[in-house]
Write a structure and sequence with these properties.
two-stranded antiparallel ribbon; 62 residues; single chain
Amino acid sequence: MLFINRPVTEVGAITSPGQRRPGLRNATCLQVMGKDDVGAVEVMVDPADPAVFSFKPLYTKP
C-alpha cells in the first residue's frame, strides 16, 4: 500500500494565530506500507502534468 500526500502545500501558511509555518515548495511525501508485499516503487516524473509525480507500487510475488 502506498500513502502519498503533500504535507506542505503553502509556504508561510498560518498554523495558529500569529505563527507562520516555514515551508517547502513542491514537497511530496511517499510512505510504503506492507514491507512484505511491496518490493519497490516506480516514480515517474512528468513536468507537463500539474501533479508532476506519479507512483506505481511493484509487488513481490507470493
